[in-house]
Amino acid sequence: MGVFITFEGPEGSGKSTQARLLYERLQALGYPVLLTREPGGTRIGELIRRILVDLRHTEMAPTTETLLFAAARAQLVSELVRPYLNTGGIVLCDRYADSTFAYQGYGLGRDLDELQAITTVATGGLWPDLTFYLEIEVEAGLRRKRMARDRAVEATNPASTFTTPPEWNRLDARDLAYHQRVAAGFTALMSNDPGRWRRFAAEQPLDALAEQIFSEVVPVVQHVFRPEARG
Ligand code: TYD
Description:
alpha/beta
């Protein structure tokens, strides 16, 4: 069995960048490593993602939303994550089931036991070995994300600032109180399972944060076989 590592955090925490930096570093060291994301990561999952993030889907019922996240996760676990872990590799995932507890549980007020049951069906009970939480004050994170969106708009289509690029999605557009409940939810999740989580301040230089993350990963991946390092 390989090693399963996930990245979590509120909007604009920069976890996708850190997941990529870790992926590149492990790959350069010869580790078998896979980088994926949620919702998405598979052909079917990316289609489900499109439905979930579409700003026009204002009528989506909370149950539908919850089950779609679970469906995308079920596909990812069965198609990519489990098979790769079974070959002894390292899987890095940008968000995973903790996001369901934070966003649909604490954020939308869904029953946590019900989410647990749905998650177990979707994942077969697969939980990460290690989860990084990149902490940022909610308003600062949303500001960062909005700025990234504005830059993307200017870069792709200067003539039309009315186009909404995918960086700003249906879930980002929820109100501040929602995002604050999500952040408080993550804090509660971390205190329930402290051994699995590593918590870092998101607002620090990229390289410094990448270094701290890497030093936590080293002992966890030590047993992973590196074909390139043979002999
Ligand atoms: P994404 O653009 O990937 O957000 P981020 O860049 O912050 O990771 O969009 C994913 C959105 O879906 C994000 O707002 C978090 C939300 N989400 C849930 O609400 N529940 C979930 O189970 C998952 C995996 C994500």
